[in-house]
Structure formats: C-alpha cells, structure tokens
Amino acid sequence: MSVVDSAVERVADSPVVSRDDLPLVLVLPGLFVFLAFMLFPVLYLVYLSFTNAEPATLFQGREQWVGLANYVRVLSDGQFWNSMGVTWLFVATSVALKVLVGLGVGLVVTGKRVRGKRFMRALIIVPLGLPGIFTITIWRGIFSSAEFGLANQFLRAAGLGSVAWLSDRWMAFLAYNVTEAWLAYPFMVIITVSALQDVSEELHEAAMIDGAGFFARFLHVTLPSIKRPVLFASILTAAASFQQFLIPYVFNQGGPSRTNELLIVYGYREAFRFQKYGEGAAIMLVAVAVIGVFMMLNVKKGQLADGVDDA
C-alpha cells in the first residue's frame, strides 16, 4: 500500500470525517487553490471593469464606480474593432494552416512506406519542450527585416529582393501565422496521428478494391474517420490563437502602427501603457466572453460532447 493510500485510509477511518464526506475532503485543497489563484482574480477583474481604476488607486479602494462607462468607451473605439477583426482573421488563417500542417505531417509519419517513423515522431514533439518566449524570439530573428534575417537570405538566394517583414502589415501578419503554426503543430500532429492510427484498414482495403485512389480514399475514408478528433483539436488551438499575446508583442508590439494589434495586446496596452486599468479589464472580459461563446457554439455544433452524460 502506498503512502497516499495509507493517508486516505486514515482519513476515512477518522471519527471526524465519514466515508460519505471523504470525496469532499479530498477535493477541498484543490478547490482552495482554484479559488485563490483563479476565481478571485477573475472576480476582481470584473470589479475593475466597472471602475476608473488606475495605478495610483489600485488595491487602495480609491477607485470610483463608473458602471458601464468602460464598456461603452471600448465598444465605441475604432481600435477595438480593428483588433477584434484582426484577431478573428488571425484565428481563421492560423487554424487553417495548423490543420493543414498537422494533416500533412501526420500522413507522413503514419505512411507505410516511410522509414524512421519513430525517430520522426520524437523530433516532432521537440518544440513542446522549448519555452515559448525562446522560440518566438528565434522566429523574430528569422523574420528580421535586416539583410541577415534568415527569411530574407532565402529570398535573395531565390533571386528575390528582401522584405521588410515586421514593418509591413501583411508580411508581419504572415510571420505571426508561420510562428503560431510552428508552436502548435506538435499538438495537432499528436492528435492527428492518434486519429489516423484508429482508421479501419478494412475500409481502405474495400475502397482500394472498388478502384479508389489515394486522394479518393483520403476524402471518403480518412477524413470522415478523423473528423471529430481534428475538430476538437482545432477548437482548442483556435481558442489559444484568440488569446495569443507573445507573438505580436515580441515581434513588433502589434504593429506597424497598431494595425496588427490582437485583442489581448490591445487590452494589455490600454491597461499598462495608457494606465487605464478599468478599460483594460473590460477588454479582457469581452475577450473571455467571446472565447466562451465560441467554444460553446463549436462544441455544440460539432457534437463533441455527445455521450458525456452516458459515462
């Protein structure tokens, strides 16, 4: 019997705690940590969004209640709607790129004719072990607008001119997408490979007997079989893309001229650059609400929660 099992048995045999109350007792430490580090900050954020909180008044009780004024100012700010639009465009393009990369790499490392698949799968998860800020900083150097930038060196080797990657809006946006795909592709590949391994070989064999080629089998056998896991992974990574902060901030702080300012960067700038904590809190809560609605609609539409209540 392990130490944990012995401790549980002693608690269960205690005259103070009955066996019926044991699950609650075991959950209480985790519930306390959740309340301390998750629920309280969220509730405090909600409170700040209805005040005119600034650095001089924070945690001192001197902020004044302003009601919905922060939300009105945010929703009437053109920069907010620019950030919202750029964020959704980033989510759409980055998720599409991540799904394509995940499917492509997944098909390669599960192919019957591919050698060294175990070694390749081990290499795929290497980016997961690297700190995000380190990886993003490396990619910022790759997309440097200077002549020594790796991306510009490839362009010059191909006979093309250099590109001001981080000074041009759409070139910077492309750099965001490539970096985001690199950060998330190991997760997408792991989910895709797991789904591909569960695809019935009998279905493929039956399709081959009927004369179906590779692409026909992929469209009519493989994709329907892996649709739900890939959709689930896509929803999760879409939520992560919506909350992306480090890539635009480290690359060029959402520039040039705030044109690529994703929603989280916009909220951070309003709170800490312009010291409008109330408006910053309102922006973050709007982001939380949008992400929550997005997740619920996609889970419901994709029927990803079917069968959960039957477990």
How is this structure best described in words?
This protein has 13 helices and no strands. The chain has 311 residues and is mainly α. The chain folds into two domains: 3-48, no CATH class; 69-301, MetI-like fold, CATH 1.10.3720.10. Helix 8 packs across helix 10 (214-242) and helix 10 (214-242) runs antiparallel to helix 13 (277-301). The longest helix has 32 residues, at 78-109. The chain is globular, with a radius of gyration of 25 Å. The model has no long low-confidence stretch (mean pLDDT 83).
State the name of the first-level CATH class of the largest domain: Mainly Alpha
CATH topology of the largest domain: MetI-like fold
How many extended strands?
0
Oligomer: single chain
- Poorly predicted runs of 5 or more residues: none
Number of helices: 13
What's the CATH architecture name of the largest domain?
Orthogonal Bundle
Task: Note the beta-strand portion.
Answer: under 5%
Structural class call reads: mainly alpha
What is the N-to-C order of secondary-structure elements (H for helix, E for strand)? HHHHHHHHHHHHH
Q: Using the CA coordinates, give the radius of gyration.
A: 25 Å
Distance between the termini: 29 Å
Mean pLDDT: 83
Q: What does the overall shape look like?
A: globular
GO cellular component, one term: plasma membrane
Transmembrane segments: 24-47, 86-110, 122-142, 173-194, 281-299
InterPro entries: ABC_transporter_permease, MalF_N, MetI-like, MetI-like_sf
Keywords: Cell membrane, Membrane, Transmembrane, Transmembrane helix, Transport
